[in-house]
Amino acid sequence: MYGTGPILILSDTPLPDLETYLHHTGHGFERRGLPDYKNLSGGETQFRAVVLAPALEAELPPLINSCRNLWPQAGILVLNDTAGPFQEGEMVIHLSGATTPEEIIRAVFEQRDASKQVFPKGRKYPFGTIVGQSQKVQRVFQLIDRVARTDSTVLITGESGTGKELIAQAIHYESFRRDKPLVPVNCGAIPGELLESELFGHEKGAFTSAIRTRIGRFEMAEGGTIFLDEIGEMSPQLQVKLLRILQEHQFERVGGTRTINVDIRVVAATNKKLKEAVDEGSFREDLYYRLDVIPIKAPPLRERTEDIPPLLEYFLKKFNPFRPEELQGLNGEAMAALESYDWPGNVRELENLIERMAILCDGPVVTRDDLPDKFGGKVSGPPPRPVHPAGPGLLLDQIPNPGGGRSDLPGPGESRGSQKESGRSAGHKPDHPG
């Protein structure tokens, strides 16, 4: 289903909630104490993922390096409550210690799949989890292919849920910087007074709670790409510092005087109309033109409804492993309802709908009655009655391939060649295919 091998938990203290969940859901696991990283040994077991729960943030880099050397195919998840996430390349995910067992396991599967998907040859779609056959998506593919060969700054625009982060990921992994970190930052999710320290880092004593020097995201991205999501939320003061980085590739940490040089590529994204923000005076005009060197627009789902069938197939393959019985697809009426819907939440809304159907639908085929009220269904709250196909429908093995024959769309993180061995955007949750 998702590859072979158990999950390794490295922690000096038991994680009862996670271990109980793994036991009851049938996922093999092994817990070891957190030894000195030099004494970490691999043995013959090949783990599908390693969950690290260190007490100190300083222990992470050597532990991660050791795990990578011993189990290069395993995803790595870090559980702790330290201030700010530690990110060491694209194969590491930082999760809060308060994360639920269900979220951890989903991250194990999705992150491991994403780490394997450095866009292998022979894939059905040119850029992995960006799923689509429409002309507008093909245009995005063409732009990604051209842009990735350069080192120019890119501005990705589009509504929420259209897969802007997945476009940024594709640009990075197709570029010569692919072996260096891709560091995402959601500028709208971090309070303005903290964003400066998050981006540029700070020196010890720079402010009351700065008990140690901390590097920022720009330094973490050295040699790679930094993805600035929701760039339109950045304050005018930070816009000035960002402009300097784009022009001179230099900055100083908060509270510091030493100038730091960085070699990075900047990819930004926004769901705002930045040109209007420039006209209103809330966004710097010079920064806008520095960012807008190569613009890419992520099209909304309502403008590419022909991509709904392959997206459905993708999400069905993603959520079916969590069902006792495979959800095969939608009947004709349900499919028509989805194609006539306006999709204000775009691909993310479609993903959430399929997850809901995978949980609530008792039968193998989704009917219109199973859909929420906004789609014209009759039931939106309680689990629906068992369903049966009501006529010609859309089943997994009936979705046509562009070149003819049945579709063989990989699941999340799969290539056509690795489908039997393993089971998304934004990814930043890069989370859904674009």
Q: Features of this protein?
A:
434 residues; globular; five-stranded parallel sheet; alpha/beta; 14% strand
Radius of gyration, whole Å: 23 Å
The CA-CA distance between the termini, in Å, is 24 Å
Helix percent band: 25-40%
The largest beta-sheet arranges its strands as: 2-1-3-4-5
Low-pLDDT regions? 81-91, 111-123, 378-431
Give the beta-strand count.
Answer: 15
Summarize the main sheet.
Answer: 5 strands, parallel
Structural class: alpha/beta
Q: Helix count?
A: 13
Average pLDDT value?
76
* Coarse shape: globular
Oligomer: single chain
N-to-C SSE string, H for helix and E for strand: EHEEHEEHHEHEHHEHEEEHHEHEHHEE
Report strand %.
5-15%
Describe the structure.
By secondary structure, the protein is α/β, with parallel strands linked by helices. The protein is 31% helix and 14% strand. The chain is built from 13 helices and 15 strands. The protein has helices at residues 16-24, 60-70, 101-116, 135-148, 164-173, 192-200, 217-220, 236-248, 274-280, 285-291, 308-319, 332-340, 346-360, and strands at residues 7-10, 29-32, 49-52, 75-80, 92-96, 154-157, 182-186, 225-229, 250-251, 260-261, 265-270, 294-297, 329-331, 365-366, 393-395. The strands form 4 sheets. Strands 2-1-3-4-5 form a 5-stranded parallel β-sheet, sandwiched between helices. The protein has a 5-stranded parallel β-sheet with strand order 7-8-11-6-12. A 3-stranded mixed β-sheet has the order 14-13-15. Helix 1 packs across helix 3 (101-116), helix 4 packs parallel to helix 5 and helix 11 (308-319) crosses helix 13. The protein is globular and about 65 Å long.
